[in-house]
Amino acid sequence: MIRINYTFKTVGPLFTGSDENSGTLRTLRRQKIALAENQVYKSRLDEKTRRDAVVQILAGVWQAIDFDSIKGTRLMGIWGEFANKLTAAARAANKYQFFEILCRSWGIEAITNKNVLTALDLLTDQELLDTVRNESKYLVLSLRVLRDEAKAKRAENNNDMLFDLEPVRPNAEAVTVVKTEDFIPCISGNSFRGRMRRLAMIDFCKRVGITKIDKKAYHTLFTGGFLDQSTQYEDFDRLEEFVKHCPMLGVLGSAIGNMTIEGEMLMGWAYPLCRERGTGDQSFWQFLDTVFQTRHDSSKTENGLELTGDGKEDPQQMKYEYEVFAPGTPFEHRIACTSDKELIVSAFEHLIDLFKASPYIGGQGSVGNGELDLSELKIENGVTSNVYTKYLDENQVKIHEFWAELKM
Q1: Is residue 404 a contact partner of residue 212, using CB atoms and an 8 Å limit?
Q2: Are the beta carbons of 322 and 25 closer than 8 angstroms?
Q3: I need a labelling partner for 328 at 20 to 30 A (CA). Which of 96, 238, 309, 371 fits?
Q4: pLDDT tens digits, residue range 105-132?
Q5: Using an 8 Å Cβ cutoff, are 58 and 139 in contact?
Q6: Range 43-68 burial, b when 16+ CB lie within 10 A, else e
Q7: How far apart (Å, rounded) are the C-alpha atoms in residues 256 and 223?
């Protein structure tokens, strides 16, 4: 059995994808973990008062925004933008940096709301940042309700006061707060496996000259196969035939009908080296960033090309943001191969070589994301990958015929 425990770093931004959004921001995939060391702090606020204090800070920022300079579609999406900038500011190391980043993101130079400083002084770094990181949707909704109530009162009383909030008052005695878990961004093992499978099968097809293949056979190689009732019983000799004519299936596995080839490669998740896991000095929050990109309608400035059509359709413009691991983020990762068969082990080593030669993972690769530094990814005391490539060369004709004639 081969075990590889190694570390790597991101060379450029890395976006792993997620099903969750914060405002219009696509966030990284996260996994719940138990903290390596519980985070303990004293608080002078109960839960309701803590949230009220954070909302008062946000109200002060909102009141200081120059809305006269915000027009059109941007104004229509102002709450999504506020949520995005709130999430970005929450990556700060302490409450003062959070406040500075949030104000700077709106071009705010001065805040006149006197309750902001009171709330900042009452909140500890940890409780302010945890509240914003974990309850941002509630906070933005609370701010929006306050804004609507204030607008109604302003119209009723004919005054210019946007918010008229009572200052937050602390409890008489401080309470101890213990945090035992967190949701940490990470890279799933499936992300690695999917990327490496595609590299392996493209290389395999090129080496044996496969240029045309049955669609179901394609899925067997490139996507991990499919489960159906095309095979009524488990035919282990049939499975061995597939591995014989593509040893990489022995490494990566696949599903064929109602049968499964168990792959010999075990793939772990990759986690940032961070304080929360007890593997680093910095919090994982210091490794996160936001990428903002646009796609503009170049037809409006095209000079050398005549465009047909009435041209009355709306401009094709798009703005999008997504959360990334910043360049230089360190990770720990584990890969193993459980086989002791020389051909399978050699195929595994060849797969590692392919991944190191094309060290990319995640999404948005076409715009500069996902490159990794895999210089620490090494196999010791293995076998040469030439065993695998030599096997393909010597059996190229038989392998090509098998996949060319295969109907599933």
Answers
A1: yes
A2: yes
A3: 96
A4: 999 988 888 889 999 999 999 999 999 9
A5: yes
A6: bbbeeebbbbbbbbbbbbbbbbeeee
A7: 12
| Residue 297 clears pLDDT 70, i.e. is over it | no
pLDDT of amino acid 143: 94
CA of residue 125 relative to chain centroid, distance: 25
Count the neighbouring beta carbons within 10 Å of the beta carbon of residue 42. Answer: 12
List alpha helices for 125-224, DSSP H: 125-157, 189-208, 215-222
Beta strands 25-26; 318-325: pairing state: parallel
User: What type of residue is 63?
Assistant: Q
Instruction: From residue 368, give the alpha-carbon distance in Å to each of 164, 239, 326, 360.
Output: 47, 40, 12, 10
Q: Helices in 33-94 by DSSP H: which ranges?
A: 47-64, 72-76, 78-89
If phi over 0 gives left and psi between -120 and 50 gives alpha, with beta otherwise, what is residue 100? alpha
Q: CB-hemisphere CA count at 13 Å for 25?
A: 23
Which distant-in-sequence residues (6+ apart) come within 8 Å of 313 by Cβ? none
CA atoms within 13 A on the CB side of 68: 1
Token readout for 112 is 């006149």
What residue type is assigned to position 172 of the chain?
A: A
Which tokens belong to 88?
Answer: 């970005």
Strand partners, 292: 321
Half-sphere exposure for 297 (CA within 13 Å, toward CB): 9
Residues 6 or more apart from 190 whose CB is under 8 A from it?
267
Q: Distance between CA atoms of 35 and 15, rounded to whole angstroms?
A: 24
Q: Give me the residues paired with residue 295 across strands.
A: 318
Mean pLDDT of 329-345: 96
Picking from 188, 179, 227, 204, the residue whose alpha carbon sits closest to that of residue 34 is 179
pLDDT at 296 over 80: no
253-278: average pLDDT: 93
Quote the tokens at residue 40: 């303990």
Beta-bridged to residue 372, according to DSSP, are 10
Could you give the 3-state DSSP secondary structure of residue 292? strand
Any idea where the domains of the chain sit in the sequence?
2-14+187-269+328-405, 45-173
> What backbone torsions phi and psi does residue 384 show, to the nearest 5 degrees?
-70, 145
The token duo for 272 is 């940032």
pLDDT in the model for residue 259: 84
